[in-house]
Amino acid sequence: MNDHPVTLHVYDDLRRSRLTLFFRPLLCFPHFFWLYLWSIAVSFVLIPSYLVAFIVGRPAYSFQRFFCAYLRYITTVLAYLLIVANPFPGFLGERGKYPVELELPAEAEKQHRLSILLRIPLAIPAYMVAVIGIYAAVYPAALFAWVVALIMGRMPRGFRDLGANALRYLGQFLAYLFLVTGTYPCASPYVGISLGSAVVTDLKVEA
C-alpha cells in the first residue's frame, strides 16, 4: 500500500534532549527567517514553472530540484518544531542529512496539461484536509507531547507517528501543488510513509 511517489521516511529513536526541547520554539527562529526568504523565492519561481510545465508537459529539471530541496527543508523544520525528530535541522534541504526525510521523484514526471492548468483549484480539497489535520489534531497533540517528552526524555511513539503522518500528507500536497508529482495526496496513513527505516545508509542521528 506504500506506493505513493512522495514518501516520508522516519528513522528516529524517540529520545529527546530535555534542554533543547524546552527552548525548541526559540531555536526555530533562524529557520523561520530563512524559510520566509526561501518562500519568497518560491513565489517568484512558481508561475514560470507552471508555464514551462504547461508548454512541455513536465516541469523543468532545475525547477524540480529547487522545489524538492524546499519541500525537504520544510519537512525537517516542521519535524523539529513538532518534536517528530530531535536533531537541529540544516538549512539546505539536503538528502540523507536528517532522520525525517521526504523522498521525492528525482526526475520530472510527464503530466497532463489540463491537470497542470487546473492544479490550484484541484489542490483546494487537499489543502483543507492538510490545514484541518495540522491545526485541529497535530498542534494540540504536539503541545501535550512536548510536556510528556520534557518529563520523560522520550517522545511517545503514537504522537510521533501522528505528527509524521501530518508531515507526510502536507509533503504530498505541496509536491502536487508545485508540480513535483501529478499524483494526488492520499489521506490513508498507510500510503507514502515508512517508519523506522533510513532513506540512505550514511544517515547519522545526533543526540
Draw up the topology in text.
Blueprint lengths: L6 E4 L7 H5 L1 H4 L1 H28 L4 H21 L18 E4 L9 H5 L1 H34 L4 H21 L15 E3 L12
Parallel strand pairs: 1-3
Antiparallel strand pairs: 1-2
Helix pairs in contact: 3-4, 4-7, 6-7
Could you give a quick summary of the protein structure above?
The protein is mainly alpha-helical. It is 57% helix and 5% strand.
Structure description:
This protein is mostly helical. It has one domain (7-195). Helix content is 57%, strand content 5%. It contains seven helices and three strands, in the order E-H-H-H-H-E-H-H-H-E. It has helices at 18-22, 24-27, 29-56, 61-81, 113-117, 119-152, 157-177, and strands spanning 7-10, 100-103, 193-195. Strands 2-1-3 form a three-stranded mixed sheet, covered by helices on one side. Helix 3 packs antiparallel against helix 4 (61-81) and helix 4 runs antiparallel to helix 7 (157-177). The chain is globular, with a radius of gyration of 17 Å.
